[in-house]
Amino acid sequence: MSDPFPEIKSTHSLVAKYVTKPIWEKLSRAVTKTSGFSLAQAIACAVEFDNQHCGIYAGDWDSYKVFSDVFDPLIQEYHGISADSVHTSDMDVGKINGNIDPTAPVHSTRIRVGRSIDGFGLSPGITREQRVGVENLMSKAFANLTGDLAGTYYPLTGMNEQVRQQLVDDHFLFVNGDRNLTVAGMERDWPEGRGIFHNAAKTFLLWVNEEDQTRIISMQQGGDVKGVFERLARGIKAVGDSVKAESGKEFALSEQYGYIHSCPTNLGTGMRASVHVDLPGWTKEGVDKLNARCEVLCVQPRGTRGESGGQTGCTYDISNKHRLGYSEVQLVQVMIDAVNTLWKEDQEWQKKHGM
């Protein structure tokens, strides 16, 4: 027996393509061991909304295995990998060649990854007890951080207004009410078990129990990508070592899919390495041309609202496009090289347009 086949409103989504009636009949009554997650919960966003590209989330690491008939082909298509590919992680900053040209008008650099602790559910499926367990392990890890990584953990529960406002002003606070995350089950028991850690310099930051169990972020003003990556790698290792010492558990890492995240689009490195950079020449030449050039360079350009909140009109967020099938070092290198190329070309466009 199977449950009635759902109406998938996102008809062009990958879920609509891969959750077929025979697959649904096979899997609709299956539930995962870690958090009792079902295929219906996994595809809730594709059923509820008509605008999803992917439309599926994992409720725990088991979801990727139990519902592999859906996840495997979907992940292969989205990330452009083969069925037998393996993922290699590499956080060795010594392998990165060069850095961003110091003359390039880079406002800031930010690199983020996600990490999940093995044995606990992922945000869409995590039980209340597991969520609190993750927070407890992270709180202990934060207390063990030393040197430039040391800082303060701010739980969302019982947060006072002054602290809340400061986190808003720093653009660090995450809030509830996102319709996708709500339908996906990620905002249950809000705000319990969630919080934000940052070091004294506000250059190393962790979100606990948002879309992933942890989002780990390293950032600073200027274009020292190597420095930002080095701090990130050090911070991840320090947190991971502490979690292991405390619980015996490691970050969930799959040979095929890299670091486990709740959203399959983030599998692999889960990394987004980005800079905010001014490209006035490219802006004058045409944003469509910039988009096409970025595609060739394997990066994604996004508009920004400007660092100070004012729209500069030529500031772009440039980040690596890929997540899975490439190591962290490779993706950071791609981003550095692309920004240097874009800046060099930008100066040519500026000359051409007499700027």
Description:
- The protein has 355 residues and is an alpha+beta fold.
- It contains 13 helices and ten strands.
- An eight-stranded antiparallel sheet has the order 2-3-4-5-1-8-10-9. It has a two-stranded antiparallel ribbon with strand order 6-7.
- Strand 4 and strand 5 (214-221) form a beta hairpin.
- Residues 306-311 have low confidence and may be disordered.
Give the SSE order as H and E letters.
HHHHHHEHEHHEEEHEEEHHEEH
Q: Kindly state the mean pLDDT as a whole number?
A: 95
- Work out the strand percent: 15-25%
Q: CA-to-CA gap between the ends?
A: 69 Å
Radius of gyration: 21 Å
Please give the count of helices: 13
Shape, principal axes of CA atoms? globular
Class from helix and strand fractions: alpha+beta
Stretches with pLDDT under 50, minimum 5 residues:
306-311
What is the gist of this entry?
38% of the residues lie in helices and 15% in strands.
Labels describing this entry:
single chain, 355 residues, alpha+beta, eight-stranded antiparallel β-sheet, two-stranded antiparallel sheet, 13 helices, 38% helix, globular
List the helices and strands and how they pair.
Elements: H1 14-18, H2 21-27, H3 39-42, H4 44-48, H5 61-66, H6 68-79, E1 106-115, H7 128-144, E2 151-155, H8 161-169, H9 179-183, E3 195-199, E4 204-208, E5 214-221, H10 225-247, E6 253-254, E7 258-259, E8 272-278, H11 280-285, H12 287-296, E9 299-303, E10 315-320, H13 328-352
Antiparallel strand pairs: 1-5, 1-8, 2-3, 3-4, 4-5, 6-7, 8-10, 9-10
Helix pairs in contact: 7-10
